[in-house]
Amino acid sequence: MKLVRKGVEEIDDRVGGASFLKRSLGKVFPDHWAFMLGEVALYSFVLLVLTGVFLTFFYEPSTREVTYDGPYPPLQGEQMSAAYESVMRISYEVRAGLVMRQIHHWSALVFVAAILVHMLRVFFTGAFRKPRDINWTVGFTLLLLGMGAGFTGYSLPDDLLSGTGIRIGYSALLSIPVIGEWAAFLFFGGEYPAPAFLRRFYALHIMIIPGLLIGAMTVHLMLVWRQKHTEFDGPGRSEHTVTGTRLWPNYGMKALGLMFVVFGTLSLLGGLFQVNPIWLYGPFVPYSASSPAQPDWYMGWIEGLVRLAPNWTEFSVFGYLVAEPFIPAVVLPGIFITIVALWPVLERRFTGDHEMHNLLQRPRDAPIRTALGVAGVTIMAVLTLAGSNDVLAKFLQIEVDTLNEVFKWLLLLAPPAAGYLTYRICRELRDRDEHPIRRPRRVRVRWNAEGGFDDVEDDAPPGAGSPGTRPEERV
Amino acid sequence: MTGRTPRASTGRSDARVFSRVVRWGLLIAVAGQVGFWLFGAATSAAITDEERHGQQLYETNCMTCHGVQGEGTEDGPSLEGSGPAAVDFMLSSGRMPLNQPQQQPVRQEPAFTRTEMDAMIAYVALLQPGGPEIPTVDASAGSVSLGQQLWLSTCSSCHGAAAVGDSVGGGQIAPSLEDLTDVQIAEAIRVGPGLMPPFSEETYTPHEVDSIVRYVDFLRDSDDPGGFGLGRIGPVTEGLAAFVVGLGIILLVIRLTGTKE
């Protein structure tokens, strides 16, 4: 022990930081379960990096033609890209390769899902309000980067399914008026399938996007550190304090435990559930298509937009052709992304609320925002379902065309309906007297001197946290 | 250019040529009718027991839609050129007979025994000769590698890469190949039921059909090396599993460790 103390002192003499460390270890984190969603995304990312590094040892980002001579019978003797062959080798020959690949893919699916759920929590509790509005945009950038990392990664095996997906991406880029061709050539290095595209996607997938992700994550966490957590209102809570558990040792241990739960769950998925079986899809060949062809879930809404788009979205402006995918695959997602990224600004404009907020709202406290959020989620859900219309048609035994009509009507009607219903429910809940957070007021009855009864309200709920019993920090 | 004979020299006008053609035409038609009647009478006299059995079955189960001579009616298509492969495929996969006309034929338990099906195949061949014969299949002679290539270039865009089926628009479904026999797969290739195009021997040689059958067998027999295959449907079920299983477990743990005020 003495040796440790000595060592620490020696370092502190030169580097300093002991006081910072002490302050940091005493940091207070709220105990509410909904505050741990962001951490799930963080730990998924850690596992993504770990498994991803393993995969880079064996993956070859090249369209060079090779002949397969591995153990999978149907592909033996077949010509394929070195990229596809290397992923086949990872899956069938590298020790623990398949489980690593599957953990990597499942982690990616859960990573983006966790960011989304975390973001919904932040949205519906109003945690994005000033001063945390900047961090909302940083967080949303993380979501977009996560989608980009996922899309580039999904494309790397160069199999028939992902080839179909990239072709859609390529067409969407190409459809941008004026700059479309340059944009497409920038990402793909030529007419798709250009030999350079795998190298570019690989660089994006393992260096550029993860680098940006780590950068944005650092900013995200530093801002949380600086601004401290928000907290639900309740006894012993105020706009100027945050209560909860100190980082060291209690919260740290809890977080470490959560990390292992995330690692464990993702490993369970990777070990027990097959994901992206590229040997079934076969190597990419330009004249073939696979079915059912879907992107990973986070791109499903764009797929849905493309599938539902009517055929009059192609027209000419000043002699420039606005190609069919432009509106469904570029303009509409662009509008949606802009609205979400700027939501704190938009909301401030409409409410005129420029105050600092450290206490959260429950969804019912802001019925309009909650209603709009639910409407937005409904749009996304309908579009995601529409993106898998062929699979749904088969399982529901409904014609694809009928299903498409249904989705078009749902897209028009369901979001307003869901929004209105949410609004009514929120108002109803808000107007109720009982407040589960503050607990029902105790009402005592006293016999008064005149012989009647008086209600005596007891404002302090029983056992309400007397400030000071829990760790507390100023915000 | 020798024969620019002036019309007047032969003394035939257009009208006379026309009446000759009509007269010969009529004669041939009458002869054809008589011949057909004679031939038809001869065949119906020579009908075998099996064909007679098939006739009974045809008349009770098929005739109302496909017509007395298999010529088709408003309710069902003509059987012309369908051939034994088509009849065997439809009957042995339980697609025919339909409960109601205009229904989409789907795979069911076959309604007839093997003997009954053979009898009907024989009788339909009598009514409407021609069409592809029941193919002989030897999956073990096929190449699984060639089979995968052919499957992915021709079949997977409708039936799915893993042959689990998918919907193809117009209310039609390219069915899963889960329960087909090798012969039924080959028959479907040759016949092209529903929206599927037929592939003749010029398009796919018997060896190529054997190879496709072998690959489908391989798909059905092979285990999923990555664990539970989620129906081999791809990103749709994978995304669902990520939310339900992955995020589900994690959220449950979070909820149990965290507080709720």
Please explain how this structure is put together.
Helix content of chain A is 60%, strand content 8%. Chain A is mainly α and 475 residues long. In chain A, the strands form 6 sheets. In chain A, strands 1-6 form a two-stranded antiparallel ribbon. Chain A has a two-stranded antiparallel sheet with strand order 2-3. A two-stranded parallel ribbon of chain A has the order 4-9. In chain A, a hairpin with a 5-residue loop joins strand 10 (442-447) and strand 11. The longest helix of chain A has 32 residues, at 400-431. Chain B is mainly alpha-helical. In chain B, a hairpin with a 2-residue loop joins strand 1 and strand 2 (172-174). The radius of gyration of chain B is 28 Å and the shape is elongated. At the A-B interface, helix 5, helix 10, helix 16 and helix 17 of A face helix 7, strand 1, helix 9 and helix 10 of B.
